[in-house]
Design goal:
Elements lengths: L12 H11 L5 H19 L4 H9 L11 H6 L9 H15 L4 H31 L2 H17 L2 H9 L23
Helix pairs in contact: 1-2, 2-7, 3-6, 5-6, 6-7, 6-8
């Protein structure tokens, strides 16, 4: 008997646990949604150099009035050397360049870049889990896990998460999944 495809999933432990919960029909979609932000937020500090957000925020806050065009995208592009080896940071810089090219500035542009980065990571992780389940299990099971991941993405407030991760919002993280320790805390009916 196998432990399930999530055990051999080549992702961080929070993503493995999320895949296990999404695969198990005994867990409600709400329980999948509770775990989803933790997995997504867990990648940020591991793949984002310490001062990169601060540097991008400073660049996006600059006055963009220039005779020769907006210099901000070029300045952000120059930060790609610092993001080498950090895939999430590279995507964040690309999203910041895109926000600057749209004419956005300041904290609005930073939040937009971080939100788009989180959306990108969430969809990539969803596809990675689905592909792994297709190889190690059945197509129906893979489809069900993908649907539950997509439901968690839709229900998550990625803009608020982006604000917390970039330091724009000083709010607390939402509470993690509730542990069920009592016999009466079983499966909701």
């Amino acid at each position: 008997m196998s432990d399930g495809p999530h055990k051999s999933l080549n992702m961080r432990p929070r993503w493995k646990r999320l895949a296990e919960v999404a695969d198990n029909q005994n867990f409600t979609p709400e329980e999948v949604c509770e775990r989803f932000p933790r997995a997504l937020e867990g990648d940020w500090p591991l793949e984002m150099p310490d001062n990169l957000c601060r540097q991008v925020r400073g660049i996006l806050s600059q006055d963009q009035n220039s005779l020769f065009g907006d210099p901000r995208p070029g300045q952000i592009e120059a930060l790609h050397r610092e993001a080498a080896g950090y895939p999430l940071a590279g995507v964040f810089l690309d999203c910041a360049i895109e926000a600057a090219n749209k004419g956005m500035a300041g904290d609005t542009a930073l939040r937009e870049a971080a939100t788009n980065t989180l959306i990108d990571r969430a969809t990539r992780s969803t596809r990675q889990v689905e592909e792994h389940y297709r190889r190690k299990s059945t197509d129906g099971r893979a489809h069900r896990v993908r649907e539950r991941f997509e439901g968690a993405i839709v229900q998550s407030d990625l803009s608020a998460m982006a604000g917390r991760l970039t330091g724009l919002d000083k709010g607390k993280r939402p509470p993690g999944p509730q542990k069920r320790t009592d016999l009466d805390d079983g499966v909701p009916l």
